[in-house]
Design brief:
Layout: H1 2-13, H2 17-58, H3 62-72, H4 75-88, H5 94-109, H6 113-138, H7 141-145, H8 149-207
Helix pairs in contact: 2-3, 2-6, 2-8, 3-4, 4-5, 4-8, 5-8, 6-8
Length: 208
């Protein structure tokens, strides 16, 4: 109970800016949970999908490959399905179609990640602003005239809570941003692998 009271006291000591920092922390946690579950689901689907799709494409079983893509319904499957449909419908410039489809897929994968990048920048600035506001109050002329040096130093210490909180939120946001970018690169690699596999097989069939 005492620790809760102390934590609440520190939160209030940081000033009104702490509410904005708290909002940033909620946004970071929400995005972190949502993106983690999203990428986890993609990774689980892609491992099985890639293993089943490769032999179908190599054997030119386009109809079965298309059915597999529709059953999977994932990001990589969507790109593969678009490429297969273009080939079966004799569409020219399949490479351009795949590039466009891959760009749309990457845009979906990057959803909300820019928010994390923004919070990495904003959170420390909010903390610094809260500290500056607190220090202005601590070094007010009234406190100096009343001869309260301990009140001044204590106020500065409390004001630094805002900076510390902002930095903590920024560090957490940066770690999540780096982790999800790594996951993003992995999925992009799988999209490129599928695209190259499709184009190579299509060119072999057209040449034969």
């Amino acid at each position: 109970m005492e620790s809760i009271k102390e934590g609440f006291h520190l939160f209030r000591a940081g000033g009104p800016i702490m509410y904005l920092i708290l909002l940033c922390s909620f946004i970071v946690l929400s995005i972190g949970i949502e993106r983690y579950l999203y990428y986890k689901n993609i990774k689980a689907n892609n491992e099985k999908f890639m293993a089943e799709l490769k032999p179908l494409i190599e054997d030119s079983k386009w109809e079965k490959a298309s059915e597999l893509c529709q059953e999977n319904g994932g990001i990589v499957a969507g790109v593969a399905s678009r490429g297969i449909n273009c080939f079966t419908q004799k569409v020219v410039n399949i490479e351009s179609v795949l590039e466009g489809e891959a760009s749309l897929a990457v845009a979906k994968l990057k959803a909300n990640l820019n928010h994390l990048d923004t919070i990495v920048t904003i959170a420390p600035l909010l903390g610094l602003l809260g500290t500056v506001i607190g220090m202005i109050g601590s070094f007010s002329v009234m406190n100096v005239k009343n001869g309260q040096p301990l009140a001044i130093t204590g106020g500065v210490g409390e004001a630094l809570v805002a900076t510390a909180s902002g930095l903590c939120v920024a560090v957490l946001s940066m770690l999540l941003y780096s982790y999800f970018n790594h996951q993003l690169d992995h999925v992009i690699t799988e999209i490129e692998e599928v695209s190259i596999m499709l184009v190579r097989q299509i060119k072999q069939e057209e040449a034969s």
